Amino acid sequence: MVNFGVWAGRKYFLDKMSLGDLVKAYFTYYAILVYLALAAAAIALSVALSDGLLAPLLSAAVVILLYPLVEYLLHRFVLHAQFLYKSPLTAKLWKRIHFDHHQNPNDLSVLFGALHTTLPPIALITLPLGWAIGGPGSAAAACAAGLLVFAFYEFCHCVQHLPFKPKSAWLQRIKKSHIAHHFHNEQGNFGITSFVWDRAFGTYYAHAKQIGRSPTVFNLGYTMAQTERYPWVEQLSEGPRRADPTCPDPTYPVPGE
User: Is residue 243 assigned to a domain?
Assistant: First the structure.
């Protein structure tokens, strides 16, 4: 729980928020402010260290183009992997980065990534890539692009869980697919801002009738039987767990049903 600013002592639940409420909560959340501040610092550093614009701009463009692939791979093979909850060393991490979000997709405090889980991968991916393209100035530019793209990702993810219909046709499409991932079958539609790689790897479904309802859509395979063998996530959890679904959340009608 964040304990300062407008977030002090409270939680935000997207099913009870308007777009205006979300914008206020988004731009006052500490992690978003850190991303924006670090991006501004990285841009200034890139300007100071670069001899020209070509290499930094190329580095930023490469990061932006690669981001949907990184988003897909991390979501599918790390966040939805079962190896993290099977170790007491990583169970708490997995609970924070994805289990809690699938247990309660409306809770904004667990939808946002925590800095200790987001900044290391952003730095590890963008800095070497930018450095290889054009040295330290390009590394800073690549990092700035990564921070800004991730901040944009976080906003899109919030909007996908907000109970309203976006005016943008693109936002409508990605919202529809992501909500199906949460309330129908979590074994597909791993993209957040783009489903290009879902289509490429055969994990995209546009309609619920294309794939059966998953009994593990809320627990990601961490069933009650698994808790007996790997109890660490269960021990860290408070309150009742969300049951396996027999019907979608009424707030979010699954498209195609």
Answer: no
The secondary structure of the chain, three-state, reads CCCCHHHCCCCCEHHHCCHHHHHHHHCCCHHHHHHHHHHHHHHHHHHHHCCCCHHHHHHHHHHHHHHHHHHHHHHHHHHCCCCCCCCCCCHHHHHHHHHHHHHCCCEHHHHCCCHHHHHHHHHHHHHHHHHHHHCHHHHHHHHHHHHHHHHHHHHHHHHHHCCCCCCCHHHHHHHHHHHHHHHCCCCCCCCCCCCHHHHHHCCCCCCHHHCCCCCCCCCCCCCHHHHHHCCHHHHHCCCCCCCCCCCCCCCCCCCCC
CA 183, 185, 186, 190 torsion: positive or negative?
A: negative
Give a yes or no: residue 253 inside a domain: no
Q: Which domain holds residue 61?
A: 5-236
Asked if the structure places residue 249 within a domain, the reply is no
Please classify residue 69 by burial: count the beta carbons closer than 10 Å to its beta carbon, then call 0-12 exposed, 13-18 middle and 19+ buried: middle
Of residues 126, 115, 147, 112, the one with CA closest to residue 41: 147
The residue with greater pLDDT, 1 or 106, is 106
**Confidence at residue 247, expressed as pLDDT on a 0 to 100 scale:** 44
The count of domains in the chain is 1
pTM over 0.85: yes
Could you give the CA distance from residue 28 to residue 162 in angstroms, rounded to a whole number? 17
CB neighbours (10 Å) of residue 222? 25
Predicted confidence at residue 10, as pLDDT, reads 76
107 in Cβ contact with 25 (< 8 Å): no
- The verdict on residue 250 lying in a domain is no
